[in-house]
Write a structure and sequence with these properties.
204 residues; alpha+beta; Gyrase A, domain 2; Alpha-Beta Plaits; 2 domains; five-stranded antiparallel beta sheet; globular; TrmE/GcvT-like; Sarcosine oxidase subunit gamma; SoxG
């Protein structure tokens, strides 16, 4: 008997056409179903060293992100990091990390279903985000490699400035806030569109 795998739907499935309405200075796309693991470990401990050897990277310090190959490591607290990898890597990474940690004190938890990711690029990225974020997003203050947990339009997000894309930002947002945040981004861009006549993205 054949068992069908249930179809997966991302929090922003069907939004491609609306994202296509954005001005040319801002491009937004969803990166759905990324592997996301929360790592809790004491910095400098034997367990932390084991994790670093396993991943091939020094765990980044406060407000920073690092990327060994296809795994991105985001600092999210004094003893907490978020590991982000392509879809389908959960089991492999969990097994490798738990094997490396052994009986040392640390935890690794799969939280992939909690959030989706928005990839933003273009010259308007920081200008648009500044409308809803209290942080100083000037590149001199928030350079590439920065990782910040903040509020964007009152929605909690993890904001990552990409090393390989100086004008690019990734927003990790909880699934329940994704539609709200996407709508806010569209409205925040209204003044930069030439075809709206001052109206919102939905014509109002």
């Amino acid at each position: 008997m054949t068992v069908e795998t249930p179809a997966r739907f991302s929090p922003l499935s069907g939004w491609q056409d609306r994202f296509a309405q954005l001005p040319t200075g801002l491009r937004v796309r969803e990166l759905p179903f990324l592997t996301q693991l929360t790592l809790r470990v004491e910095p400098g401990s034997a367990a932390a060293k084991a994790v670093e050897d396993c991943l091939g990277i020094i765990l980044p310090g406060p407000l920073r992100a690092g990327s060994p190959g296809d795994v991105e490591v985001l600092w999210t607290g004094p003893d907490e990091w978020l590991l982000v990898a392509p879809d389908g890597r959960q089991d492999d990474l969990l097994a490798r990390l738990r094997s490396a940690i052994g009986d040392d004190f640390a935890t690794v938890t799969d939280v992939s279903a909690q959030r989706t990711t928005l990839a933003l690029s273009g010259p308007l990225v920081r200008t648009v985000l500044a409308q809803g974020c209290a942080l100083d997003l000037d590149p001199r203050v928030t350079p590439a490699g920065s990782c910040l947990t903040t509020l964007l339009a009152q929605a909690p997000v993890t904001l990552v400035v990409r090393e390989e894309e100086p004008s690019g930002v990734r927003l990790l947002v909880r699934s329940s806030f994704a539609s709200y945040l996407a709508t806010w981004l569209l409205d925040a861009c209204t003044e930069y569109r030439s075809d709206t006549g001052g109206r919102g993205w939905d014509g109002r």
